[in-house]
Automatic annotation (TrEMBL):
<feature type="transmembrane region" description="Helical">
    <location>
        <begin position="352"/>
        <end position="370"/>
    </location>
</feature>
<dbReference type="InterPro" id="IPR010699">
    <property type="entry name" value="DUF1275"/>
</dbReference>
<feature type="transmembrane region" description="Helical">
    <location>
        <begin position="327"/>
        <end position="346"/>
    </location>
</feature>
<keyword id="KW-1133">Transmembrane helix</keyword>
<feature type="compositionally biased region" description="Polar residues">
    <location>
        <begin position="58"/>
        <end position="68"/>
    </location>
</feature>
<keyword id="KW-0472">Membrane</keyword>
<feature type="transmembrane region" description="Helical">
    <location>
        <begin position="178"/>
        <end position="195"/>
    </location>
</feature>
<keyword id="KW-0812">Transmembrane</keyword>
<feature type="region of interest" description="Disordered">
    <location>
        <begin position="1"/>
        <end position="99"/>
    </location>
</feature>
<dbReference type="Pfam" id="PF06912">
    <property type="entry name" value="DUF1275"/>
</dbReference>
<feature type="compositionally biased region" description="Low complexity">
    <location>
        <begin position="302"/>
        <end position="319"/>
    </location>
</feature>
<protein>
    <recommendedName>
        <fullName>DUF1275 domain protein</fullName>
    </recommendedName>
</protein>
<feature type="region of interest" description="Disordered">
    <location>
        <begin position="297"/>
        <end position="320"/>
    </location>
</feature>
Amino acid sequence: MPSAAPNPTAIPSDPVRGAHGEVQETPQAIKDQIRGSSNTLEAVGPASKASSSKDGHQSPNTLLNNGPRTGADSPEVGKEGADSGPVQEPGQAVGRGGAGNLTRRMTRLLNQQISHDAASVPLAWMALLTGMVDALVYSRSQVWTGFQTGNMVQFSQNIAQWMLPQAEKFPLLTLERVLSILSFLLGSFLGALGGRRFGDRRRAWQVTTALIQSISLWGAAGILLSRPEDEAPSFRYYPGVIVLTAFSMGLQSISAQKLVSPAFATTVAFTATLTQIASDPYLFALTLSPFEAHRQRAKNDPGSASANGASSGAPKAPATTGRDRRLLAIFALCTGAGVAEMLLYSDAGLRGGMAIAAGFKLVLAALWLIPQGQDPKPKAEVGGA
């Protein structure tokens, strides 16, 4: 019977002898490579088999070519490696994990609900922008873009002037005032629709509306920057400035109003705010609410001596909180108007002032990331309530 073919993967039990009969020890490394290649020889092509030696063991070149393989070169993982690309390093996994955690934290932050009690800073910034934008626009056109009460009174006067034959007519002013009212209404209407769709108190919606307001003011600034600084308002360009500015103020008004803030109202109407300040029973109280709140926290601190016998729980808001917030809103409004007047007398002028106001709207978007918020309740919990 013909003798069986030698097994190329078998590990020799006797020492390997050379051509002249000398004994050669089989290196341990070669043994390990032979064991590792035993499961992959069937997948190796005929060329590799032809390189085997006649005495039953493989040549060093064959062993190097047919040894254990890793990555895309391995027959067992070649397809998977070729499809999935280069081998992933541990540092890359850590980097992607950190980016994923940051994304989850930012998503959670943007989905939080904001209360007006925690939003005093962005609401005060809104009031400052109202004074700034209205002062800038009114200085050139005699048209309000935030204070629509004044626009409605003046527009009614314009209508009466067209009804009186002997009265002087102001066609441009009449058009600009009606455009201001309609654009303000459009901004408020679209802001209300978006608030109902995405959530009025949702942080992401407040940031989005601030960005839209900024874009509108940048558009108005772009129109002004395309004209000479000393050019008088005309039908050719100023109605566009009025439309974009009033739309921005209407969107600001509804976004603040939906926070249901009794202190800041809509950040564009302050007549009622003055009435509330005058009727506040703590109008002449000498203590400011931040200091009073700090005193209450110190009093209710379990580690303080004054907390003995005091009831546990969150302290109530100081009685002067509403008064102080309303005063802050009035101060911010007047500060914005003063800043606008300084810009009008500076090299910036109306055009530069409007661009600065548009940039301040971007600051408003960032300020909405500051207030402490609450995570939304799960749908099941809301439905069962």
